[in-house]
Each structure stands twice: as C-alpha cells, then as structure tokens.
C-alpha cells in the first residue's frame, strides 16, 4: 500500500486533476490511498471570506464560485456539492451577524476546501474508470484533540485507522481522503494547521503501515533552493530525515514541518514527486546514510523573524542567567529558534512579535532589550557538513560578496545545519550568491 498526497497545485483544475488520475491509475497495483488538499487558493478564499464576514461583510461568492467552476469543469452533477455551498453561506452569515471569528469557526470554514475537493475528485475518477470513493478523514478514525488550528490525532489513531479502514474501504476501491482536517471527540471540526495535508498523509501512512508516503507537488522533488527564487536550483535525489526536517522547519513550503515525524517513527520512506513530470524520480527521504553525500544539500530560509538582543554585564560569570531568561520566554509561550551568546549579550530569534512584546517588561529586568523585526533566518543544510572543512568560510565569503551583513551565526558541532540571521531585504541576493557559490561554481 502507498499513500499519495496531492497538494493544492496538483488539484487546481481539471487539467491538473486529469494528471492525478493518470498517475493514480498507473499505480493501482500498489493499492494507493490518495490524500488530497483543497484546490489551490481555496483555503485562502474561505479564510478571507470568513475574515470579511467578521467585519460584517457577508459574501460567499469567491469560494463558492471557485469550487463550482472546478466541479463543473469535471462534469460533476450540481447537487454533489450544493449542500456544502448552502452550509458555507449559512456559516458566513452567522459570522457576519455576530462579527466574531473564533479559532473553532475558522477551522470549520477552512475545512470545506478539502471536503468539497475529495468529493468532486472521487466522482470524476469513478466516471473515468478508476473506482474511487471520497472519505472525510475522521470517518477513518482521525479524531483529534481540541487544539483548533494545530490539532493532532488522539492516541490510538493507528489502531483506529487500521480497523476503520478495513471496515469502510472496500477492496479495489481507491479512497480519496481529506488532508488538513480532523474532528475532535465532541464532533467539532479541527485542522492540523496551514499546509498540513502533508502531515495527514504521513500520519495515515504510519497508521496503515504503508510501504511509502508520496508527496506530489509542482517541483522535481526537493530542490537545492526554492526554485521560484533560484532559477538554477536542482533536484536532490536522496536526503536523510534529519536534513529534510531542517529544510521543512526553516521555511521550504514543499514539506510541512511536522510531516516527517510520523514517517521517521515508523521508518516509512517519504518520496517527493512532481505531478507535472511524473516520470522524474523526485527525492527520496529516508534513513540510509549515503557516505558520498555532498557537504551541503540545500538552502532554506524563513522570513519575517524577530531578533531579541539582551545586553547585560550581569551575564558575566553568573550561573543560571540564560535559564531565567528562557523561563520568562517559556511562560509567555515564545518559541525560540536560533540563539547565540557572548559574555555580555544574548541574541535569539522568534517568529511571534506579539508574544515577545508581552514578555518584554519582564525581560527588561535582565538587561537592555533590543527588538529587531524584519529579519530572516537563512539555513544551510547538509549531512556531510560536519566532515567537510571550509564550508563556513565559503558561506561567509559568499555573504560578503553579496554585500550582506550577517547579524547572527550559529553552528553546533556535528550539526546538519548552519544558521545565519540577515535582514529580510537581503534574502534574494544572499540566496542567489550563496547558491551560486555552493552549488554552481566548480568546487
Ligand atoms: N527546496 C525546495 N524544493 C522544492 N520546492 C520548494 C523548496 N523551497 C520552497 N519550495 C516551494 O514549495 C512549493 C511547493 O509547495 P506548495 O506550493 O505548498 O505546493 P502544494 O500545492 O503541492 O502543496 C514549490 O512550488 C516551491 O516554490
Ligand atoms: N489546503 C490547506 C492544506 C494544505 O496542505 O494545502 P497544500 O497542500 O496546497 O499546501 C492549506 O492551504 O493550508
């Protein structure tokens, strides 16, 4: 059995869904379970309509017309999705009346994209000769906690999905399952977080004990840098889980940050593939050590970060200074990513200026606090980095060539990533020069 996740770009239109049909049809012998995202742009359209409703403007036309256009192009009967259109309108009307949009209502409205997409894709598949049936993932046991916007399945999911899958998915039928969404024990709809269909796919793959989880997107697998920024980016044939996890965490949209954990736990390889070029082998992510792997595998970055710098002579020789600072940050739920220290200052990055601002009054007891917004964490990832001399020199040289000031630099011994903090305004030039230096120059 394989789990195949198709992202929004793969199910954007009839032309794309026809590609998905051919890809799935060619793999029927491997007993595919399809996990689908909403059509590209649909989740944004639903969320925007909900936000507008919360200011009193009731208008369901953008998401409903978008969905209707895809369903009509696929030849689906109008009544297939009519109840969903009505429910979306009712919900938006309710939000516009109370002018309130809770995380619970936001998940409810955002869930419609996946729920409608799987129904029209399964309907189209069935009429095209691939026996398929649509499933809301909760009907296969995906019952979550009540953390709206970042829900996770409750313990026992693996046993539940195995049992419910055996009971509800007939032999020979391709299940087309909703990504992204879930339901809590009270029956309320939740989501696992934006771009979370990748995570649904690896959770389903782990629960069912699939032989492989495939993430089908619009690039030739994972590339040495975001190909929409670096035109010369190239495919990475194999990656280790640790490398891919760093890449996902530090901002590459191609994989959701939590995607790899369920697969890592069960040792299930994850393959990233291109719906537009299905014969390309893409990228395989697993545990195999490739001793010949290059020092640097890829470049990733996360923009709109905030740097907090605390300067204090109290740090000098004092036991527990950092622990006290981190305890305050933890109490305010500030997540810290990169941290560097000297004897008189400590700098760290986070992505939540709001939470950091709430922690500031307490932090000021430790020293002078400086908050620097609009920063980017730029990360060089590579399994082979610990055993290659001169990588840091090459990286810093490239940054100097690009005229970019490196404000923080962090590398731990044996680590697979080297992180730097720069200004947001310098990202494109820094990534371009760095990619050229690390991947394009004769080395
Ligand atoms: N290192 C990378 N390799 C491949 N794609 C990347 C990388 N970094 C960023 N991306 C971006 O991720 C995009 C795919 O993610 P996304 O738009 O969420 O796709 P999907 O619709 O399939 O979920 C690519 O089009 C690419 O621009
Ligand atoms: N549709 C959801 C979930 C998702 O994973 O989408 P995509 O696969 O298109 O990134 C979102 O836009 O957040």
From TrEMBL:
Where does the sequence pass through the membrane?
Answer: none
State the CDD domains in the record: ACT_AK-like_2
Q: Where does ATP bind?
A: 5-8
Q: Which residues form the ACT domain?
A: 380-443
Pathway stated in the Swiss-Prot or TrEMBL entry = Amino-acid biosynthesis; L-methionine biosynthesis via de novo pathway; L-homoserine from L-aspartate: step 1/3; Amino-acid biosynthesis; L-threonine biosynthesis; L-threonine from L-aspartate: step 1/5; Amino-acid biosynthesis; L-lysine biosynthesis via DAP pathway; (S)-tetrahydrodipicolinate from L-aspartate: step 1/4
Q: Does the keyword field hold Transferase?
A: yes
Q: Where does substrate bind?
A: 43, 114
Q: List, alphabetically, the Pfam families matched.
A: AA_kinase, ACT_9
Q: Which residues form the signal peptide?
A: none
The record's similarity note reads: Belongs to the aspartokinase family.
Q: What is this protein called?
A: Aspartokinase
Biological processes annotated in GO: homoserine biosynthetic process; lysine biosynthetic process via diaminopimelate; threonine biosynthetic process
Question: What is the E.C. number?
Answer: 2.7.2.4
Organism from which the protein derives: Sorangium cellulosum (strain So ce56)
């Amino acid at each position: 059995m394989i789990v195949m996740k198709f992202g929004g770009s793969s199910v954007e239109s009839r032309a794309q869904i026809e590609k998905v049909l051919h890809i799935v049809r060619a793999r029927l012998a491997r007993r595919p379970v399809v996990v689908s995202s909403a059509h590209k742009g649909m989740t944004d359209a639903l969320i925007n309509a909900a936000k507008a409703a919360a200011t009193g403007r009731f208008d369901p036309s953008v998401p409903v017309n978008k969905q209707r256009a895809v369903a009509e192009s696929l030849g689906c009967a109008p009544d297939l999705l009519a109840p969903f259109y009505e429910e979306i309108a009712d919900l938006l009307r309710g939000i516009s009346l109370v002018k309130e949009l809770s995380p619970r209502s936001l998940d409810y409205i955002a869930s419609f994209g996946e729920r409608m997409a799987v129904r029209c894709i399964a309907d189209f598949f069935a009429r095209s000769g691939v026996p398929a049936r649509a499933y809301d993932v909760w009907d296969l046991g995906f019952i979550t906690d009540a953390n709206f916007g970042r829900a996770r399945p409750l313990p026992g999911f693996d046993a539940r999905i195995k049992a419910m899958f055996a009971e509800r998915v007939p032999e020979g039928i391709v299940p087309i399952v909703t990504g992204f969404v879930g339901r809590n024990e009270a029956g309320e709809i939740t989501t696992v977080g934006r771009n979370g269909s990748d995570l649904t796919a690896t959770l389903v793959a782990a629960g069912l004990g699939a032989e492989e989880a495939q993430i089908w997107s619009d690039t030739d697998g994972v590339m040495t840098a975001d190909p929409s920024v670096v035109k010369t980016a190239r495919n990475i044939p194999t990656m280790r889980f640790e490398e891919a996890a760093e890449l996902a965490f530090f901002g590459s949209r191609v994989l959701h940050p939590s995607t790899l954990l369920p697969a890592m736990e069960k040792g299930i390889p994850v393959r990233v593939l291109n719906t537009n070029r299905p014969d390309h082998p893409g990228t395989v992510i697993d545990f195999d050590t490739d001793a010949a792997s290059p020092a640097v595998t890829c470049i990733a970055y996360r923009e709109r970060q905030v740097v907090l710098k605390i300067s204090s002579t109290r740090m000098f020789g004092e036991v527990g200074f950092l622990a006290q600072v981190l305890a305050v940050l933890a109490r305010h739920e500030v997540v810290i990513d990169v941290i560097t220290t000297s004897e008189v200052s400590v700098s760290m990055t986070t992505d939540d200026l709001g939470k950091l601002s709430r922690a500031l009054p307490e932090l000021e007891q430790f020293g002078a606090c400086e908050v620097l917004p609009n920063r980017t964490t730029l990360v060089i990832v590579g399994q082979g980095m610990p055993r290659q001399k001169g990588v840091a020199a090459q990286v810093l040289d490239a940054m100097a060539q690009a005229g970019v000031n490196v404000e923080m630099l962090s590398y731990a011994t044996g680590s697979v990533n080297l992180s730097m903090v720069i200004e947001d305004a310098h990202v494109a030039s820094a990534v371009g020069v760095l990619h050229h230096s690390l991947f394009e120059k004769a080395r």
